[in-house]
Design brief:
The chain is of the alpha+beta class. It contains 16 helices and eleven strands. It is elongated and about 80 Å long.
Length: 369
């Protein structure tokens, strides 16, 4: 069994864990245990406890910690520590999922094993006690060590409880755990439910796809998703998104390579969307090639097989030299510049490029203004 180095957890989270466990059994659960088992620093800290939500609130308030009560009806209390938010959830059992997202009811329990058995995948159904004991009723550690993503219990039932798990199963293929594969039964259940993604909100789809893009090897997940029919195969085969280090550049590349329109349009998280817009402006020739956006745009241009944006005459310079306004004409000029450089014009001088574009403007129909 691996050594679980709990010192990788924030000190404030470890302190809260010990305080809660002093009142009732409290375990570290979910992704933090999975990451520690893989020798990684956990991204989030989740605790599960026999304490009821109001008791968790009492403990937090007694220690001067603020709480977030948004999920209290489902047993979840967020405790704001000096080093970040810790989710504390009461051990629970769940009723049927009528909306493919939330259980119709939850019942609090003192049995942590039952709580673990309601979770999605075995590698997420492990827990760690304060004294370092691993609680693993579904064989999650074995599956993690073997690189297998396996559902807890019947895979069809697990996916039907929350349709977003169809995408989460694929997402873990690109996670930082190393090469992973879907258990055959889970893969079959994912393929049989590819149509359910159309019923998931655009915002939730965008968040989950953005998570895929943030992981080291998104190509693994995207290729398997295409194989199982969740989306069409890449229109640009052989070009790996992992070669792009910037998440915004990856989003722009994803839009070129894959078609998600059968679902509707995913709503990407605002910071990622803003980053992609900045890189797109550099790529289009409207913003200077400088800073991290410029570096990302140049990498993306190389990935796409397009001209280096550093070769472009910028929008402001074109407006001044060609005496053209912003708007439709400028857009046509920028597109012509890109076309010419893509068609072997990389070796032309700045003066030659301007001469060509000046002639292009003179030959435009007057209606273009």
């Amino acid at each position: 069994m691996p050594a679980f180095r709990v010192e990788r957890l924030p000190a404030a989270a470890r302190c809260l864990w010990a305080v809660l466990d002093g009142r009732a059994p409290t375990w570290l659960v979910g992704g933090a245990v999975r990451d520690l088992a893989a020798g990684l620093d956990p991204e989030d800290v989740d605790l599960a406890t026999a304490l009821r939500p109001y008791e968790v609130r009492q403990v937090a308030c007694a220690h001067g910690l603020a709480v977030v009560r948004t999920g209290e009806a489902f047993g979840r209390i967020g405790v704001q520590t000096a080093q970040g938010l810790v989710d504390v959830t009461t051990f629970r059992e769940e009723g049927a999922y009528e909306d493919a997202r939330h259980p119709t009811r939850v019942r609090f329990t003192d049995d942590g094993i039952r709580d673990l058995r309601r979770r999605d995948f075995t590698m997420n159904a492990m827990a760690l006690s304060v004294d370092g004991r691993l609680i693993d009723p579904t064989g999650g550690l074995r599956d993690l060590q073997n690189g297998v993503i396996r559902a807890v219990g019947d895979p069809g039932r697990r996916l039907d409880e929350d349709h977003l798990r169809v995408l989460r199963a694929i997402r873990f293929l690109s996670y930082r755990l190393g090469p992973m594969r879907l258990d055959p039964g889970l893969a079959e259940a994912v393929a049989a439910r590819r149509g359910v993604l159309r019923g998931i909100s655009s915002r939730r789809l965008g968040v989950e796809l953005a998570a895929i893009l943030s992981h080291p090897c998104p190509d693994r997940a995207l290729a398997e998703g295409a194989r199982l029919g969740l989306w069409a195969p890449s229109r640009l085969p052989g070009r790996r998104l992992s070669r792009l280090g910037d998440a915004g550049a990856r989003l722009l590349a994803l839009a070129r390579a894959y078609d998600f329109e059968t679902w509707g349009r995913p709503e990407w998280p605002r910071p990622l969307r803003a980053r992609a817009r900045k890189i797109a402006r550099v790529l289009a020739g409207t913003d200077p090639v400088e800073g991290s956006e410029g570096v990302a745009a140049q990498e993306l241009a190389s990935w796409l097989g397009e001209p280096d944006p550093a070769r472009f005459l910028r929008a402001g310079e074109l407006m001044r030299c060609l005496q053209i306004p912003a708007g439709r004409v400028l857009g046509q000029v920028l597109r012509e510049q890109r076309r010419m450089l893509a068609d072997g014009g990389e070796g032309r001088s700045r003066a030659e490029l301007l001469d060509h574009l000046r002639q292009f403007v003179q030959n435009l129909p007057e209606s273009s203004d």
